[in-house]
Write a structure and sequence with these properties.
single chain; Histidine-containing Protein, Chain: A; about 35% helix; four-stranded mixed β-sheet; three-stranded mixed β-sheet
Length: about 220
């Protein structure tokens, strides 16, 4: 039984396995699930980095799950692209994504692992760059080293902007979240009911002008 919820680990495991069965993006037969005090450990193999991300993301949305330990390995079974082919695909993906300033981002591809570097104006652009390449065929992993070169904005203005966004989009959760800003680094603290809420609040905060880095310390506790 979980120390922090009324849902047993066996029930959480059943829900997680059902979620993996339901999600067409993953192969549940190749993923093993363990649960200890609400913390889910996923292990096994998937065909792409995108599937690995999808599996973890889906499990985070399951009720009762507090945290996820990702031990899934990417094992590409189809004929893999060469690093040269993958680098060209990465460049094309960056160019075709309307939210990514592709001319300011460079990539390095080594054995299927992509490293992104460069600079952008908004934290959200940094995250969008990863999202547009992580699902490409042949990708084994992504390292994001893109820096946010945001113009200096008064910390109070950043905090008020984020707090206003939270109230507009997630009024119930807004009262449970504390926002602090120091030298463009935003820290979110508090408690929410699910990982979906946690991720949604992080995305909201990332849109604010002046955010150079974002530290998400929001805890997930469905029974708080």
């Amino acid at each position: 039984m979980s120390l922090t919820s009324t849902v047993s680990d066996s029930d959480i495991r059943r829900r997680v396995e059902q979620e993996l069965e339901w999600d067409p993006r993953v192969d549940p037969e190749r993923i093993a699930v363990k649960v200890n005090d609400g913390v889910v450990t996923l292990s096994g193999f998937v065909d792409s980095y995108g599937m690995k991300v999808a599996a973890c993301d889906g499990v985070h949305h399951v009720s009762g799950v507090l945290d996820v330990v990702d031990e899934i390995e990417v094992q590409i079974r189809i004929q893999a692209k060469t690093d040269h082919d993958l680098a060209q695909a990465v460049r094309a993906a960056l160019i075709w994504d309307v939210f990514v300033p592709d001319e300011r981002i460079r990539s390095t591809v080594s054995d299927g692992w992509i490293t992104l570097e460069g600079d952008v104006d908004r934290w959200q652009q940094r995250e969008d760059a990863v999202r547009c390449v992580e699902r490409l065929t042949g990708v084994r992993g992504v390292t994001n080293r893109i820096e946010v070169k945001a113009e200096a904005v008064d910390p109070t203005k950043i905090r008020k902007s984020i707090e206003s966004a939270l109230k507009r989009r997630a009024e119930r959760e807004a009262g449970r979240i504390a926002v602090t800003v120091s030298d463009g680094v935003v820290t979110l603290k508090g408690t929410v009911d699910s990982w979906a809420d946690r991720n949604a609040l992080e995305r909201l905060a990332s849109h604010s002008p002046g955010v150079k880095d974002l530290i998400n310390e929001i805890r997930v506790d469905p029974f708080a």
